[in-house]
Design a protein that fits this description.
The protein is of the alpha/beta class. It has 2 domains: about 220 residues, Rossmann fold (3-Layer(aba) Sandwich); about 45 residues, no CATH class. About 35% of the residues lie in helices and about 20% in strands. The chain has 9 helices and 10 strands. The strands form 2 sheets. Strands 1-2-4-3-5-6-9-10 form an 8-stranded mixed sheet, with helices on both faces. Strands 7-8 form a two-stranded antiparallel ribbon. The longest helix has 17 residues. It starts with a helix and ends in a 7-residue tail after the last helix.
Amino acid sequence: MRLKLFCLLILFFPVAALANLVELKVRPGIQASADYRAGARGKPAVLLLHGFLQTREFRTVATLANSLHDAGYTVLVPTLSLNIPNRMQSLSCEAIHRHSMNEDIIEIARWVDWLKSRGHQHIVLFGHSYGSLQLLAYLEGKPDAAVEAYIGTSLIETRIATLSRPALITQLREQVQHKQTRLVTQSVSLCPQYAAPPADLLSYAVWDQPRTLAAVKNAPVRMQLIMGDADKILGHGWLQALQHIQTPMIIVPGANHFMDAEHEFDLFEHTLGFLQTLPTTP
């Protein structure tokens, strides 16, 4: 019955680009954009971030953004520039990657500031897949006081396959120290061939499982993880590691990494349930 209801909702509220396009200079020479929909003023604004190399049109975040706005929430769905002005398309693994985690964090902070400039003083961060990790990296620094909560869906750490991580990090740090910029090609997360300058690759490679777990454990805001027990993209033992640090986590039976098909409704239901526990303002 629930699946039939969800299918009817998708029929009448199809996934589409959100109506209000916002453009913002996120760094010198780099313009980025986001979809914005204003909701009820008493409810927190939700910033939704897509996964690795994707855009705001990726179905997992686009569908949820539509559903949350229909429920009365303000939503902001940016596309990280990845150092490409006005990026509108996903970036292939085979591209040359001249972007870094540090730049991602700066852009997240700029979008948080943009929401505040529109009067939103209560902000929730929602990330899917690697977007969840990028938001954790933002929270590890000095997040704005307006950010009150974090929802991580299909949270994944940076995985390295072709070299041992300590050896790779040592190599990259030496190259950075000697100001070398020649591209390094590695297997990174979902990309078997990922080419990037040493400093940029290093910024992602340092986010291994221990650092990610520490960021989850020490997050300065309320937290909720939503994970699928049929997620084949997660590393071996990752769910158990998250359970070991006793982070608040919902495991959705049968859901894969993308929370698609009938599990889109599960994702919305659990996200909405968490949002409803947060205080509202008059």
